[in-house]
Design goal:
Layout: E1 6-11, E2 14-19, H1 29-44, E3 50-55, H2 78-87, E4 92-96, E5 99-101, H3 103-110, E6 113-117, E7 121-123, H4 137-145, H5 147-155, E8 159-161, H6 162-167, E9 173-175, H7 179-189, H8 207-220, H9 225-239, H10 242-256, H11 260-275, E10 291-295, H12 299-310, E11 314-318, H13 322-341, H14 347-355, E12 357-360, E13 371-374, H15 380-393, E14 399-402, H16 409-413, E15 422-427, E16 436-441, H17 447-459, E17 463-468, H18 475-492, H19 496-506, H20 512-519, H21 521-531, H22 544-550, E18 565-566, E19 569-570, H23 576-589, H24 598-619, H25 625-636, H26 645-650, H27 654-668, H28 678-681
């Protein structure tokens, strides 16, 4: 027998309606059915003067059940529940705690009042899933906050605190004690009065502010369909009767939920959730971590320190050079002072975090730490030397991690007497901003150590993804294949600005050559030189980047790379020097240059990515196909609304996809490993 998701009980003259659908009390069909029955009971029972809706556990209602969205939605729909609340002759108060998001916040806005615990967050993040609020959010929210503010909140998927919501008149009371008790008291104090937001007028405001909000939302939302639809629906609150605008909102919601964007965004939502889980065969209990030592006080090391401090960990920052240590400490201190100055953090919180940092040159302190993270120069010999020293001083059983982007974790681990305790933790730069964390499994890594790495990632508020130990792991290996293909296209006839423009048009955050300039061309150059002895003679190798570096063009930091820079601003096109280097490369290859269309550039880039992704999956470097999508979206600027390269591949005609990759392989020649696509294309 299916467990009931909604329960009612009486507290005096108040009917308490409890939603109990763990873990997030999603408004599933069972919840909606239960709410309809509970509201009916409230309306008909003369002993009740008012009702209170609350969520069981740690949250109110954190959204709808997304598993329903790709299917015909079963009745009753959320708007029917909301209509029942509004038509109930007795007032209903929402007791908010944890999260009231999406349909959960729409449910709360339908009530006659809202009492919130201090820790509550509210918001309408539907646009981030390729849809718009579909149960009145676009109509009720602007009646309280105005159209401009509603556009900003909905189109940015903003979540706000209870205190912010109170300031915007979205909640009626914020309490520090028991929210249910407070909500019951508030419900009785209404003395039977209904206070429906739908009956309120939309505030009058300067229309130039509305236009500005819409333009900003369109720009930041990259003009995606859900963003424009949300703007239109919110603006309709000013000009159309409530019920008419409500019906149109619902129609748009029902259309968008089956759109390509919505399918892709739901895919990446579930992929993110799955990425944090270890495969069943690797499950283990994580080890306790209270103190972390970060070795290396450079930009990356300092960023990792900030991550750990923000997670409430005690941190030891270890360097072998006093000047470098002081610079690292200054980076951390300046970060927190800047946060305080920008009113993003209380001074007391910043002071507490700084107090948890100990900077030292003393390797003996390693004995006090549960986890050591090496963040030194990306050179195998250097890292091996550091790990030999770590082995001397770290306590037995401590987790030893290397922050490497592409080096062999086993080669590093074998510099110690305990390779079973070693993993890779590939942070992305800047470490305190980027959400992605690749947890790299060495051949000897204990399951408990892997579990610790994944748990640490979640504690640091990142998306940890398990990766096998292979060159570049998941992300950099795929990006390397993508960059190589883009370089091939330079030899074949494209210019850097054409490639960059085409891939930005596809949805990439930046084009590959603009990224290279920003990162510094010498980084890839150094890696290429390190691999030169292992490169097969017949493999197609583009030396354009090498020649740029030899000419002193290392990117933004030298004022010239693929592009030239004046006051940090790039030129719109490449200059004659770059074009000559590219044309000379084509001549040496014996290629007759031909202009490539934007569609050709996009297709070839995606085929290279998909083929390499299939290789990684087949080799077991990626545990799940969806993990690849998470890595590309969060680490490399792949458009979220496309869902990642795996999701993109699964939307293509399979025979055409396979044929195009075969043609690409023949064009690229030796060195292009043709992958078996069957595993990647299999639906999970």
């Amino acid at each position: 027998m299916e467990k009931a998701c909604v329960h009612t009980h009486a507290v005096g003259e108040v009917c308490v309606i409890t939603i109990d659908n763990p873990p997030i009390n999603a408004s599933s069909m069972a919840v909606r059915q239960g709410l309809m029955a509970a509201i009916d009971t409230l309306a008909k029972d003369a002993n009740f003067k008012a009702g209170v809706i609350i969520g069981a556990g740690t949250t109110f209602v954190a959204g709808s059940d997304l598993r329903e969205f790709g299917l015909p939605l079963p009745s009753p729909h959320l708007p029917e529940v909301i209509l029942a609340i509004e038509h109930c002759p007795k007032p209903v108060v929402a007791a908010l705690h944890g999260a009231a998001l999406g349909g959960g916040f729409e449910l709360a806005l339908a009530c006659d009042a809202r009492v919130a615990a201090k820790d509550t967050v509210v918001g309408l993040p539907e646009v981030s899933l390729g849809i718009i609020p579909g149960a009145g959010g676009t109509q009720r929210l602007p009646r309280r906050v105005g159209v401009a503010k509603a556009i900003q909140m909905i189109c940015s998927a903003q979540r706000i605190s209870a205190m912010e919501a109170s300031a915007l008149n979205l909640v009626d009371d914020v309490v520090t004690d028991d929210v249910l008790t407070a909500a019951i008291a508030y419900a009785l104090a209404l003395k039977g009065l209904k206070r429906r937001i739908r009956d309120e007028a939309v505030p009058t405001e300067d229309q130039s502010l509305v236009t500005q909000a819409a333009e900003t939302a369109t720009r930041l939302g990259k003009g995606r369909p859900a963003v424009q639809a949300a703007i239109d629906a919110i603006r309709a609150s000013q000009t159309r009767p409530f019920d008419e605008a409500l019906a149109e909102e619902r129609a748009v919601f029902m259309h968008l939920r089956l759109s390509p964007d919505a399918f892709a965004l739901r895919h990446i939502f579930f992929a993110e959730r799955d990425s944090t889980k270890l495969p069943k065969e690797l499950l283990a209990n994580p080890l306790p971590i209270d103190t972390v030592c970060v070795i290396g006080a450079g930009t990356m090391g300092s960023g990792i320190v900030i991550c750990a401090l923000d997670a409430g960990l005690r941190v030891i920052l270890l360097e072998q050079d006093e000047a470098a240590l002081l610079r690292g400490k200054e980076r951390v201190v300046h970060h927190y002072r800047d946060r305080v100055a920008a009113s993003k953090m209380k001074a007391s919180v910043a002071a507490e975090r700084e107090a948890h940092l100990q900077c030292t040159l003393d390797w003996q302190l390693l004995a006090q730490t549960d986890l050591v993270i090496e963040a030194v120069f990306e050179d195998l010999a250097v890292k091996q030397a550091v790990f030999k020293k770590i082995d001397q001083f770290a306590r037995p059983g401590a987790v030893l991690a290397t922050n490497t982007s592409y080096l062999d974790v086993d080669a590093i681990a074998n510099a110690t007497s305990r390779p079973q305790d070693v993993i890779g933790l590939h942070f992305f730069s800047p470490a305190n901003v980027m959400k992605l964390l690749e947890v790299v499994r060495g051949s000897a890594s204990r399951h408990e150590v892997l579990a610790t790495g994944m748990a640490l990632g979640k504690r640091l508020r990142k998306l940890p993804v398990l990766a096998g130990n292979a060159f570049g792991f998941i992300g950099n290996r795929i990006y390397n294949a993508y960059r190589n293909q883009c370089e091939f296209m330079l030899e074949d006839g494209a210019l850097p600005e054409e490639v960059d423009a085409a891939l930005k048009q596809f949805g990439m955050a930046m084009g590959p050559f603009a990224v290279a300039d920003m990162s510094g061309l010498d980084i890839a150059w150094r890696m290429r030189k390190a691999q030169a002895d292992t490169r097969a003679p017949g493999v197609r190798y583009v030396d354009i980047l090498d020649r740029l570096c030899e000419a002193g063009r290392l990117g933004r930091k030298t004022g010239a790379g693929y592009y030239t820079y004046v006051d940090g601003k790039p030129s719109p096109t490449t200059d004659a020097v770059v074009r000559q280097i590219i044309e000379d490369a084509s001549v040496r290859r014996g290629i007759q240059r031909q202009k490539l269309s934007a569609e050709t550039i996009q297709r070839r880039a995606m085929l290279a990515i998909v083929n390499e992704a299939a290789c990684l999956l087949g080799e077991g470097v990626a545990s799940r196909a969806s993990d690849i999508d998470v890595v590309l979206v969060h680490g490399y600027g792949f458009p979220r609304w496309v869902g990642g390269p795996v999701h993109w591949a699964r939307q293509q005609d399979r025979e055409a996809l396979k044929q195009d990759i075969c043609e690409l392989a023949s064009r690229c020649g030796e060195g292009f490993v043709l992958a078996d696509l069957s595993l990647l294309l299999a639906q999970e």
